[in-house]
Amino acid sequence: MTVEQRRHAVGNRIAAIRADRGFSLSELARRARIGKGSLSEIESGQRNPTLDTLYAVAGPLGVPLTALLDEDAGTEGSGEFLHAQILHVEHHPDGATTEVFWLRVRPGGVRTSPAHGAGVTENVHVVAGELDAGRLGAERHAGPGETLQWISDVEHTYHSAAGATAVLTIHSPRP
C-alpha cells in the first residue's frame, strides 16, 4: 500500500467511526482538541496525521489506536519523541483488544498521550535504555528488563533522557 493509499484509508476509518458514533466533524475536533480544518483534511486523505493526532482522535471515539491506523504487523506511526510499530493485534472473544507495539522513545523530549477509554491498561517493558512513564504526575522509572503498568484513562507520559526501546502492550476492554 502506498503512503497516499494508507493516508486515505486512515481518513476513511476515522470518518466511518465518527459517523457510527454520531459525532459531527466539529464535535470530534473539539473533543480531540484539534482544529476542525485539520480533522477534515485528515478524513479526506489530504493530510498525514501524526501519532499524537491519532491518539487524540482515538480517545473520544473510544477505539484502540490500531482501529484508526491498520492492524497489519509492521504498520508504523511517529510523533516528535516516539515511534511505534505494530507487532500484533489480538481481538478477544469478549470484544476486548490487545495491541502490541515495538516502541522507540527518542532522547530528551516528553511524549504526552491523551487519556484512553475507561479501563484501558498499558504495560511497557524496557528492552534498552531507561524510561520514565506512567500517569501524568505519577510517572515511574524503569531500566532494561523492567516493566511499568498503569491504567491509561488519564493523560500519561513517556520520557527518556538518552532514548529507550520497549515493548508496549495496550489492553482495551470491550467497548
UniProtKB/TrEMBL annotation:
Residues in HTH cro/C1-type domain copies: 14-68
Entry annotated with the keyword ATP-binding: no
Pfam families associated with the record: HTH_3
InterPro entries: Cro/C1-type_HTH (IPR001387), Lambda_DNA-bd_dom_sf (IPR010982), RmlC-like_jellyroll (IPR014710), RmlC_Cupin_sf (IPR011051), TransReg_Diox_bact_type (IPR050807)
Any Gene Ontology CC annotation: cytosol
Molecular function GO labels: DNA binding; DNA-binding transcription factor activity
Keywords: DNA-binding
PANTHER family: HTH-TYPE TRANSCRIPTIONAL REGULATOR, METHYLPHOSPHONATE SYNTHASE
The name this protein goes by in its record: HTH-type transcriptional regulator SutR
Source organism per UniProt: Gordonia insulae
UniProt lineage: Bacteria, Bacillati, Actinomycetota, Actinomycetes, Mycobacteriales
